[in-house]
Write a structure and sequence with these properties.
Layout lengths: L2 E8 L8 E6 L17 H4 L9 H9 L7 E5 L9 H10 L3 E6 L4 H9 L5 E5 L8 H4 L5 H13 L3 E8 L6 H10 L5 E6 L17 H11 L5 E5 L1
Parallel strand pairs: 2-3, 3-4, 4-5, 5-6, 6-7, 7-8
Antiparallel strand pairs: 1-2
Amino acid sequence: MLIWAVNKFSLLDFPGETSCIVFTVGCNFRCSYCHNPEFVLPEMIKNTSKNLIPENIFFNFLEKRKNLLTWVSICWWEPTLQKDLYDFCKKVKDMWFKVKLDTNWRDFDIIKNLLDDNLLDYIAMDVKNPLEDYNEITKINDNIENYSKSIEIIMKSKVDYEFRTTVIKWFHTFESLKKIFKLITWAKKYYIQNFRNWDILDRNFEWISFSKAELLNLKEMALQFVKYVEIRD
């Protein structure tokens, strides 16, 4: 695993439970509003590779935290790009930790294997746009069927999960967001995240965030399709 950093202790992912967060390197998407291009673009990743954390160092750390942590959260930027993700998750589970995976669900087969072998306990999936318009955000031509299959398998799985969308007026309208809500009808949890203009991949990206009132309207609309909806800052 290419591990860029580890947050050694967090109470944010699972209220009432403790976790560490593993940040991986690399992404298959090229979203204009990505906040950390230095860990997405291959030419920039080279500059950070010398600072990566060896896997054995991480597992030595985890061994010492057996009585302090209950979860290991794997995220940033797209963990399914890691060739040894399956083996990594198995090692974590063999140590009796629970595993959360943050993913854009680019690879249905990898996720299915992890679910089939009970190596995941929680999944957080980005749903960036209606499927027919996905490449407007991701900037790549991809097999969209993988995403629809992934949404279906996650909702039928026995693990807990959430879907989430970062909303930007440049890309999203109330009509397009309603298509997303329909895509995940009867999902357990859905989070709406307003875009924030930090250090982004496309410095020329023109953006407009939704107002608080508009976000609340989106929440009410989403609740017509999804059981639980919240707005994340």
